[in-house]
């Protein structure tokens, strides 16, 4: 039972949250505080969902609530990274409106006890496109950027890997239902790997931000 609580994802989230609290929470801009709060919410959701699952209680409604915070935090993070290159507010508002309409459509057509897969797919596609747009803007930028130590680049890279991978996993869901070890399906193992990539990239991003702040101090 303890192992269910201490999953690889939970451990990665704890480490990432602690580092975020120690590093980016101190930033003057809102990005650091938004992402740190989001990581705290992700931690609570992960453990609450595990607690409910262990006791055989339905928990998909919990993830439907969590999605709201996920949409808000990731969209804001992407906006923070892209606004340095272009005036991005209109396209982000349109994207947010599209996701909200999708969520409302789910509420009208399905029970809240079902996982909101439509909204998850739509937001994942939108997040992936914004990540690719960020790379395009980065390539067009004439100023020199050291990619290896650029915090925004690694934060966006984590988002791209996770949401592109999640989209592919959802589209080919039927291929990943085979069980590998005990209750763990191939889909679950892919989900763990995607989370580890996401939090590893974010962790490195936070470390790059710390080094960047020291250089400018």
TrEMBL record:
User: What keywords appear on the UniProt entry?
Assistant: Membrane, Transmembrane, Transmembrane helix
Q: Does the keyword Repeat apply?
A: no
Classify the source by domain of life.
Bacteria
**NAD keyword on record:** no
Ranges that cross the membrane: 6-25, 37-54, 60-79, 91-112, 118-139, 151-172, 184-207
Under which name does UniProt file this protein?
Answer: YhhN-like protein
Lineage of source species: Bacteria, Pseudomonadati, Bacteroidota, Sphingobacteriia, Sphingobacteriales
